[in-house]
Specification:
One of its GO terms (biological process) is vacuolar transmembrane transport. The chain has about 300 residues and is mostly helical. Helices cover about 80% and strands about 0% of the residues. It is built from 10 helices and no strands.
């Protein structure tokens, strides 16, 4: 049990970080699924991002099976693939549904415009006998519109600031909660003997991993690194992060950081490090891209903020 194997500080930290990473990955896609449901749309997220990420998860699963990794790692890889499929299916559903709705609306608008055009023409022509009446009405309407927009923008900016503060507070509490769940899970697993510290020397045997599994690991790392690029480009082109869940990327950053830390705290032996290098590249490398998306969230906001800045 827990008392029969000495637990060093490094092994304890490795276990805690690994457990926190596991908790982050389990809850990762839930915020984006909820965001899509609330918006009734998936326009904010790039399908190319999800597709490449899904390919990365498939190669990760194949590499884990080929390498004969522990069942928990394989089970988590299977979970990733199913979760990806659920999110992709939701995005495709909303995209198809909203595209059909837009086509029907466009068709009705075209018919309505054709029917109302003669009536509008007669109303406009009736003002020809009153010089300046149309200009006066137009200028007065413009002033009222400008005043209304100014009041709306001032009130809207206050509401947006409050909403942003509330969202950041909720996300921070969620991240803290995931960390506590992960740490508690590790403590329970250690006390019950489900998890036990592994001597660092045992990691050297992992260097004998099949070459094919290593190649799949590198392919997976390349997919993870490339997946976020379409999303970053889309955010930049739209100058908006509307429709994206900030918590989704916060959990991704947390999961990648703790995953890498869990590996490095276990051992920094050369063979062990090289064996896990593709997974380290895939996890720690994407942290830079997640940070880029955080900057876009801060600069662009939800589209209304970006238009106000411009």
């Amino acid at each position: 049990m827990a008392g029969t194997v000495p637990l060093t500080a490094h092994e304890a930290l490795s276990g805690v970080f690994g457990s926190v990473s596991l908790a982050a990955w389990i809850f990762l896609l839930v915020p984006q699924l909820i965001e899509n449901y609330k918006q009734g749309s998936a326009e904010g997220i790039s399908l190319a991002f999800l597709t490449v990420w899904f390919i990365g998860d498939i190669t990760n699963l194949a590499g884990a099976i080929w390498a004969g990794l522990v069942p928990t790692v394989i089970a988590l890889a299977v979970y990733f693939c199913f979760a990806d499929l659920i999110l992709i299916a939701q995005c495709v559903y909303y995209n198809v549904k909203n595209a059909r709705k837009a086509r029907r609306k466009s068709a009705r608008s075209t018919i309505s415009d054709g029917a109302e055009q003669p009536l509008l023409h007669r109303r406009e022509s009736s003002n020809y006998g009153l010089p300046g009446s149309h200009r006066r009405r137009s200028s007065a309407a413009s002033r009222r519109t400008a005043e209304s927009m100014q009041r709306h923008n001032s009130l809207g900016s206050i509401a947006e600031d409050d909403s942003d503060s509330t969202e950041w507070m909720k996300n921070t509490l969620s991240i803290i909660g995931v960390c506590l769940i992960g740490a508690a899970g590790w403590a329970i697993a250690w006390k019950t003997g489900v998890w036990a510290p592994t001597p660092a020397e045992d990691g050297k045997s992992d260097a004998e991993m099949a070459m094919g599994a290593q190649i799949l690991g590198y392919v997976s790392a390349v997919c993870y690194l490339g997946a976020r690029i379409p999303q970053i480009i889309k955010n930049q082109q739209d100058r908006s992060c509307e429709g994206l869940s900030l918590l989704f990327f916060m959990l991704s950053l947390l999961g990648n950081a703790t995953y890498g830390a869990g590996i490095l705290f276990h051992s920094v032996e050369r063979d062990y490090f090289l064996t896990n290098l593709p997974w380290l590249i895939g996890s720690l490398g994407t942290m830079v891209e997640d940070a880029t998306i955080f900057i876009q969230f801060r600069v662009f906001g939800n589209g209304e903020q970006s238009s106000a800045i411009v």
